[in-house]
Input
Amino acid sequence: MIYLDNAATTYPKPEEVYKALDYGNRNLAFNAGRGSYPSARSVTELIQETRQLLGDLLKVPGNTVSFESSATEALNIIINGIPFQSGDTVYISPFEHNAVVRPLYNLKEKIGINIELLPFDKKTWKFDEERAADLFALKNPKAVFISHISNVTGYILPFGTIFASAKRYNSITVLDCSQSLGILNPSVGNTDFVVFAGHKSLYASFGIAGFYNLTGIKLNVTKSGGTGSDSLNHKMPEDGPGRYESGSLNSVAVAGMNASLKWLENNNTLYSHEKELTDYLIDKLSNLPNVHLFLPEDVSKIVGIVSLAVNGYSSADVGSILSEEFDICVRTGFHCSPFIHELIGSKEFNGTVRLSVGAFNTKSELAKAVRALGTL
Output
């Protein structure tokens, strides 16, 4: 099997992660903060160490990190925790995932927020800074949500420029790093929240994700329950990660992430590896007459993902052929991202065929994928 669906979840994981998950199930499956016995205390120490390892990625304190079960849950906690009022305007890029889009549209129905798409050029994909400034002045941004790397195209968005403009209006800024953290760690000036997904570029397992609250904004509580401390208090904690971490934390998945973060520390060339493989794919696929690549003007802004279509085929048909005849795993369709396909022109193909690379892919695997696509 040639696995090229790393944008959905990286596979395989480092051997250290598998070992840590097994060890965690056998030795660390206890409730942190709920017991004074040694095993429970060791879990608490592991969680604190893992927070700090995550903090080190962004050069921020570990106590800015709150753990959740998924990036979707993290985004829901942030979106529903911001004190939006009827008439507030929220800006999103056309590259956003439904983990951002659907919670916002749910709020639009419930309380009447406005949702505006930030302007990107359809041919070049460049951000229209001047037009955006006019939009911000006309409808001040209460919050802005940006994906660091598009899960459909691998495009690296200029979030720094966008957030700097939004901060002139004291906007809340949220950066979705589900596709990037661990491989391409952002500089987080002008950023209030950063969301991460453990099972993607952090090379951990499912069941562990979360967000950084970098500027200490106090979100309204939308998920409440036991935290293992201050149990006689009917309310959630006022400060710190505990405000957003009700319920039993997945200590086993934390153990896997602890191992993956230490593995990443010792494998800090993954971005250059993914970029080299991405450029190789773009170069080779560009020579296939029936293949249409969805690329911006500046292909240096693409990493980890190449989206394409094959003339005469729907994206689903291409995926089935690659799987059944060549044992190549790719993702096809709209990839839970509703607006990007209008921008890049992929609706006529029923979405894109997405090839996404990871740490363990090789050029020889990609060469086989290119040859397979060349038969269509």
In short: Residues 15-265 form a domain with the Aspartate Aminotransferase; domain 2 fold (CATH 3.40.640.10).
